[in-house]
Amino acid sequence: MYSADGTIIGYRTVGTGPALLIVPGALAVAADYDALAAALAERFTVHTVERRGRGTSGPQGDAYGADAEAADIEAVRAATGARFVVAQSFGAFVTLEAALAGSAFERMALYEPGVCVDGSVPFGWADECLRHLDAGNPAEAFLAFVQGINPESSGKAPRWLLRLIIPLAIKKPERLRKYALLRGTIREHRESSRRDGDYAKYAAIGTPTLLMAGKGVGNTGAGRTTVRLKDVLPVSELALYPKLDHFGPENSPTTIAPALTAFFLPDPHAT
Description:
The chain is an alpha/beta fold. It has helices spanning 34-40, 66-80, 90-100, 126-134, 138-149, 159-169, 172-193, 221-232, 248-251, 253-264; strands at residues 10-15, 19-23, 45-50, 84-88, 107-111, 209-213, 236-240.
């Protein structure tokens, strides 16, 4: 299918029931959410968006911005008739932008949205990251991203230690995929960071929203932002998962799937 600017936007579909979108975060592709989609597929028809710049979707494009991503979400929503949306990190940020622009979701579930609140989405790492990419060293570019985006956690670890840990924690095929997405990730984070301070605008969104945060709720930018958004979104609730990290929807889908089902279908007989 095509977005408003003519870009092809792909999506993966599984399950039966009311239609639901999953919107991935930065450095992620639709397939990373297959386990979450499977956990929801008994009650929902799940459509996982392949965000632009990935897989079967078209490139980000010269005029890339959050408005284009919001239009992509709306295009998939309109094509699928999706009533509900689950989004993580940067995907949750552009989902909020889509809702603000008028996307008619009945309910939204947002896991640690990548909204910039008082510098919560750092961008100082981007120049170093780009230099390493231009020099043909994506591994070092990825280290610059990992340290820069989480200054209060991984940012404190010495780089020599991260060089040892990352290959053990992330298998080579996944690392190579993330390396390939780094240039686009710089553009994505620029979009969020440049909008720092305007999150109060989301008070205009009346869609019932489930905000979710992991163990970094008090000591990471994404965690603190989730709490701040609870005070802004007029119809919202907050669920905390102290055993999960920022990648909970990808790595621990069965932990959050029951809460998602209960939120989207509060009547157990609803369809």
